[in-house]
Amino acid sequence: MRLTVVGRMTAAVAVCLGAIAAAAPAQAQTQVQVVLDAMTPIIPTPTSTLHVTGRVVNTSNSTMTDPHVQLRLSSGPVAGRTGIDAVLAGAGPSTAPVELLALGGDLAPGAQQQFDFSLPMRRLGLSSAGTYALSISALEGTSRTAGDVRTFLPWYPSAERLPNAVGVVWLWPVADAPARTATNVLLDDQTPRALSAGGRLSDLVDVGREFTSTLTWMIDPSLLQSADVVSHGYQVIQDGAVVVGNSSPDAADWLNELRASVTSSNASTFAYADVDATADRRNGLRADVVRAMTVAQPITSALLKSDVPGGVYWSPNGRLDLRTANLLASAGARMVILSTDAMAGDAQQPRQGLADYATSFGDLDAVLADARLSATLAQPQRTASEVLLTRQRFLAETAAIAESPQARARTPLTVVAAPQDVRWAPNPTLLRSLLRATQSAPWMIPTTLAALLNSTPGSSTRLPFQPTDATEVAASHLTRVKSVQRRVGQLTAVQQDPGPTNQAYSEALLRAQSAAWRAQPGTGAALVTAISRELTAQIGLVRPTSSGTITFSGDSGAVPVTLANDSDALVNVGLQLTGVPSSRLESAPITGIAIEPGQKISVQVPVRIVGGDPLTTRVQILTPSGLDYGAAATITLVSTAYARAAGWVVIAAFIAIALFVVVGIGRRILHHRDSP
Prior knowledge:
This protein is an alpha/beta fold. It is built from 18 helices and 29 strands.
């Protein structure tokens, strides 16, 4: 319902109510919530009408009698960023009543009533340009505050750009958690859902296309690969089973829309899969950091069909230690995305969004995302009210930057608006309003990243890096990654053309090193497990198939061994038979056995067996360098030579005994004849 205005406050009543309200926050117990539904226009002008709508919701257990709602404004602009903090903490400048509305009737527990303020800007009596504190309070009667909401009203009556207008560079990261195995099976449907209409990534590209001249795309190449995989038909694990996904058309549309938006001048690609470079360096995976930096640009350019520049590392927590910076610079990095919190200076004061970051390999361009703007973009955006409050906070923050001494002393001062997390999930309504404001607000000028990089850098004094282990990908996780890496070498060692296999697993293991697993360690662990299982299965495609017992008539002979290659690659292997114990079998390894894809081959292995008991024998495939490959098969070897030899020994012994007996008897007879 639309409420009627009770009446304009007289000056005396306004002063009285102002004094009462000034003390109210410290005394009143919040009984209701004030929810804002809309506030227009975003950038008011002298001819505008301020229109604020919302609801008062009684969340208490008692009836709110004679409810009113009151709009209040500060008498003057808030004092910069410290003033913004004071307003949000409820300790800002005093505010004066502007309008009071009666809701009509009591408000029962759980009930809500709408309100609607419609005020010409000329009636507000704003004294000078700047950002004003605006609050809307729910009152019981006309005095006791039961709940309120505080926000900001920027007021710049002239449509002309301020001489100290601040340049704003929007960085627009497009990334996702890279939960995809070496055989391109997705661990979940998070990415397909995000690519589909109404999904997170779909919204980001839709909004970005509308404002492509106002922002710079920052793209993770591993996401482009996932989108390409999904667009051509894909498999995904659901409820423990691998099923065929159904989001292929959406992914194809998403890729085409992104291709239509990206050019070599408005986009960059950052390290593959957003690898956690700091954790990698600490855990002996420096080569993987180099690989992640090196492969990013060609993958992105190929999939987007545009020459997108690379050499960018987006630091997951906005901070970077010097050793990791040196590693990145040696890998060809030209730019790092950090937070202003990484550089020395007053956190309340704005700073130029560019600094030099000195390394042993030369200076890196440090693009500094304004920490307060990043924190604002991370505010809750679940409801229209939260979106509105976030929008007004962003407008207030940027206006405070433009009014700062730093902006007045430096023309132009350029700041960077970017999220804290590259896998951000902003509300598209908020994004559209902020980008429109960036284009139209007199205190902001949309600026490109290229223009920022051509500007004069600000302070280059970096703060000491104080890592917190809990914020990095765990060392135990990376130990598992290294274990799988060693086994990949076993697989590729036997392949005639190991390139495709090596690329598939090296990229999958880079995805297993993503900074995404800081927040989702369980998914990261599941990815390493899935990659390891796939690797075990692929190694097992080349295997010995012989089994059972083989009997020789002598102590030596040739053992027939069948080797199968069920993979799609030509392999070159060796073969070794080893007795258990090894001392009972003499057999030299055989090398240079080539097996075509999908074929089997029989190999005759010469052996010599020592002893007549059955001999358990391991049949082990070898890599060309002589290392064990895969699991061994087991056969049993038996030689009958020792059984025959034993029979002849018994016969000879019997004959000898018989001769001995005969000779003995003959001697006795002769002895008897010779006796007298």
